[in-house]
Each structure stands twice: as structure tokens, then as C-alpha cells.
Specification:
Length: about 290
């Protein structure tokens, strides 16, 4: 079934070469189609985008721009067309010269939306919930000081309570399937199909070699408690973009978000093609597949 599109918003990362020109080209084409278009441009850390209801969002940049767009629009069920203006993109897989073809396929109903699991993150402190966020790639709890080893108590937030153990490590990555090719892969985690409903629990440089990456159902909520008397500061980083300082005894709860990110792709196999190209061209490196803004 085709999709009627009357309104659109463009998330434009001005750090990318030719971003302004690309936005103008897309805006002109949408205007010809009588589609009301809002352009939200940013450089560096974005301000809050304008409020409104949109039938489609364009992400113009790299994978990091898609992550920001997905977090911003997560509650609104808006499909995202990820136009790649950077280098090789895992998530931003539509090139500028392809977007019109993909757009037409969307309108005619010939393209299937890629539904990507997202995670909700909340931090509980003595005074209650002190932070809430959402991620498409990962949530990372890591040390901030010279001493990198931190202690985290990890459990499944379910009945009955299931303790996964006390982790002594440089940090802990909680990753979605989309984020499995990012920091988690660099830390030795598995690569998952991006449309799976699963979550990866992956310790960074664990002190105990038996602490291996785990793959759990995404419906399973995970609780991470920062143990007392840490020798380093502890930081929570969401999608490599938003940060929050944690205190001893803080509890970080990670659970599946109510709605997935909806990404528009003409060819699902483009993900695996990009993955093979990246692995063979550069090898596995920290940040692969998600931090290029």
C-alpha cells in the first residue's frame, strides 16, 4: 500500500560537505510535489528541533545524524530516509543520487520500512529518576579517570530477580542489533541482523575472562548498579552523543522502547554490502557503523 506524504522535515548536518546544497535540492523537489517542508540545520551539538507533525524525515549527514534524528523522532512513528553525505554508512545507506528513486518507491508502497529496535535508558538515584533517554545504537557505562577499572552489578530486571554478576571492567556496552556494528563490535561483540529484537551486554576489557558478551531478548529489561567506592568517575554515554555523570549506587535501567525506529531503504542487502566493504577495507575499529555524524 502506498504512503501519502504531505509534510516533511530535513535534519541537515552542516559539518558535512555540500549539506546546504543537498538540502536545497531536496527541498526544491519536495516543493514541486507540493509537500510542506521544514529544514532543521545544525552544526555541532544540535538545539531542539521545531515542533510539528511530519509524514517523513530526511537525515542528511552520516550515521551519527541518523542516530540523532531517530532519538528525536522516536515517540512519533515517523519514517526516516537516511541520505548519506559522509563516508561509508551502515545506517545512512541512501546516496544523494538515489533518494528520489527511494522516495518514489516509498510513495508507491514498493519499499518496506526497516523496523529497528530502540532502547529506553533511565537512571535512578536516591531522589528518584534523574535522567531519561533513548538510543538506537548503544548505551555505554565507562570510567572517566586515570584508573579505568570500574565495578558494575548487572542483573535482569524481572521476576524472579536474576543476577548476571558483578563486572570488573573498563566499561559495559548495552547495544541494539543496529549498534552491534559500532563500539560493541570493536570490543569483541557479535554482529546481529539489524532487524532482530535483541540486546547485547558486552563488557569492555573485563578483569575476569569469563565475563563474555551476552545476547538477550530485547523484551528483557537490564539493570546496572554502580557499586560503591569506585576509584574512578563513571559516565553514561548514549549513542556516542549524549553523556550523563553517574554516582555510586546509581541504577541504570535499560529496556526496549515502545516504538522502533523506522528507516527507509530500497535494498536491505545494502547493509551487508557496507559491512563487508568496511571490514575488508579498514578492519574492525572503534566506532564502526554509528559514530560518523
Amino acid at each position: 500500500m502506498g504512503r501519502t506524504i504531505k509534510t516533511a522535515i530535513l535534519f541537515v548536518n552542516l559539518h558535512k560537505k555540500n549539506a546546504t546544497e543537498a538540502a536545497a535540492t531536496i527541498q526544491d523537489e519536495l516543493k514541486k510535489r507540493r509537500i510542506e517542508t521544514t529544514v532543521f540545520s545544525f552544526e555541532g551539538k544540535p538545539a531542539m528541533p521545531p515542533e510539528g507533525k511530519w509524514d517523513i524525515a530526511f537525515s542528511l549527514g552520516g550515521d551519527g545524524t541518523v542516530l540523532y534524528t531517530a532519538r528525536t523522532l522516536a515517540p512519533f512513528d515517523v519514517p526516516i530516509l537516511p541520505v548519506n553525505l559522509g563516508s561509508l554508512g551502515f545506517i545512512s545507506a541512501v546516496d544523494m543520487d538515489e533518494w528520489q528513486e527511494v522516495f518514489k518507491l516509498l510513495e508507491s508502497g514498493e519499499v518496506k520500512l526497516s523496523r529497528r529496535c530502540m532502547l529506553e535508558i533511565s537512571v535512578e538515584r536516591r531522589s528518584g529518576i534523574v535522567m531519561k533517554n533513548i538510543c538506537l545504537n548503544d548505551a555505554v557505562i565507562s570510567a572517566t579517570g586515570i584508573v579505568k577499572l570500574i565495578r558494575l552489578d548487572v542483573s535482569l530486571d524481572s521476576a524472579p530477580h536474576t543476577n548476571l554478576g558483578s563486572y570488573r571492567c573498563d566499561g559495559l556496552i548495552i547495544a541494539t542489533p543496529t549498534g552491534s556494528t559500532a563500539y560493541s563490535m570493536a570490543a569483541g561483540g557479535p554482529i546481529l541482523d539489524p532487524e532482530m529484537e535483541a540486546v547485547i551486554v558486552n563488557p569492555i576489557c573485563p578483569f575476569t575472562l569469563s565475563n563474555r558478551p551476552l545476547v538477550l531478548p530485547s523484551r528483557q529489561a537490564i539493570s546496572v548498579r554502580v557499586e560503591d567506592e569506585q576509584r574512578s568517575g563513571v559516565l553514561l554515554t548514549v549513542d556516542g552523543q549524549d553523556t550523563f555523570s553517574l554516582e555510586c549506587a546509581d541504577r541504570v535501567l535499560i529496556q526496549q522502547a515502545p516504538q522502533p525506529a523506522l528507516l527507509i531503504f530500497a535494498d536491505r542487502h545494502a547493509y551487508y554490502s557496507a559491512l563487508q566493504t568496511k571490514l575488508f577495507r579498514t578492519g574492525i575499529s572503534k566506532g564502526t557503523g554509528g559514530t560518523d555524524a
